[in-house]
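REQUEST
  id: r-88c1
  op: predict_structure
  target: Ig-like domain-containing protein
  payload:
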Amino acid sequence: MKANNCCIAWHFNESQIDTCKDGKVLRNGTSGQPFLYIPRFTREDEGIYFCETAYLGGCHTAKIQVSAKIRPEISGKLVLHHDRKVAVCSAAGGKPAATISWSTIENVSDHHTATPNLDGTFTVERRLVLSNNVSHSNLTCIVTHPSLGEAHMEKILPS
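RESPONSE
  id: r-88c1
  status: 200
  body:
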C-alpha cells in the first residue's frame, strides 16, 4: 500500500499472521478459495498487493495493482465570454479522469483540460465556444467514467 508494508498470512496449521493491524482479513470463499477482505476501502488502501500461495510442488505469486474508482461531481452551464456563448461541462474529483464529449454536430471550437488534484483525483473541463446561430436548447454534454456504469448526460443551462 502507499505507506505501509505489511503481511497477512494463514498457514496450513491454521496459525495466522497479521502485521497490518488495519482490519484487513483473509477469508474463505464458498469454494474454499481464500481472498483478502478490505472493509471500508479508501484511497489509503491503494497500492500493489502480492498474493503468494505455497504448496508441496512449489509456490505461485501474483502481483495485483489495487486502486479506487471515485465518481466525479458533474456540472454544466452556459456562460458569456468575450460576447460569445460558451458551454462549460465539468467532471470534478473523479478517479480515473472522466471523458467529456458534446452532443452537438455543429462545427464549433472546443477546449479540453484535465487537472490532477492534490488528493489523487482529477478535474476535467470541456468548454465549447458556440457560434451565434447555435441554439443551446438541446445542448448536452456526455460524461463517461468507470464508476457511472453508463454515460451521464448533463443538460447545459444558462447560468
